[in-house]
Amino acid sequence: MSISTIPALDVALIPLVDRAVTLLTGQRVAFLTGAGVSTDSGIPDYRGEGAPVRRPMTFQTFLADARARQRYWAGSHLGWRHFAAAAPNAGHLALAQLELAGVVNGVITQNVDGLHLQAGSRRVVDVHGSIDRVRCLSCGQQFAREDIAARMTRENPWLAEPDNVMLNPDGDVDIDAVDEMVVPDCTVCGGMLKPDVVFFGEFVPTVKFTEASALIKSAGALVVAGSSLVVNSGIRLVEQAVRRRMPIVIINRGETKGDSRSTLKIEAGTSEVLIALKERLT
Fold this sequence. Notes:
By secondary structure, the chain is α/β, with parallel strands linked by helices. It has helices spanning 14-24, 59-64, 66-84, 90-100, 115-119, 145-155, 206-217, 232-243, 270-281; strands spanning 29-33, 104-109, 124-126, 129-136, 142-144, 193-197, 221-225, 248-251, 264-266. The strands form 2 sheets. Strands 3-2-1-7-8-9 form a 6-stranded parallel beta sheet, with helices on both faces. Strands 5-4-6 form a 3-stranded antiparallel beta sheet.
């Protein structure tokens, strides 16, 4: 969806947005964002309405199963070009402008797409990592994903990149025919490579969660946008805001795990609401 086609704010939502403005005015606001913020950029949601049931790769399976790694890297390579081509939408841009205006003290994101940074947000804590980085699990060396993708293309010429792949939220594609797949290894030590993202069954790095907690502590209010808060790291951050008696505004289509803890819930798409907040708070 292009910026020009973002739907206008439903008039029925105006009283809720106005109440959110009342709660947020005069506060430094921390934002916690999930996959729903990026759906208007063409990246699908994990749990939104119509989202297919998925069985994503777990960290344990990735480590233990060589064929699973072949399947993961093949699908991830197919999805990378489409995932990397996504552009920030109006919601991302509104958040960046709110930060520039001094309203937002930072963005904590569960997304791995890097779109907040592309939109101009300066203080972004990517608690689940970023798909544009690859890390060696043995020596810790990091690589640019573009370089790994170029190498995979050379080593797997059979692996076509069709335009009609079904992209998943974490940037991969489901694929089964992987017998010929050459999995990239570390050019420094020969170790196992993994995209620098948190897999299911893997813990959020302590340093990332500490950075996210610091944003909550330095804010006077929290807005959750586009997250169902099913993932443990998200609801733990909401609990920190609850303990600090901060106003909590949740913007999401569908139920979230934090609804009962929120001060205000706005059932809507994130882009149109973020645009409305930007217009009223700056």
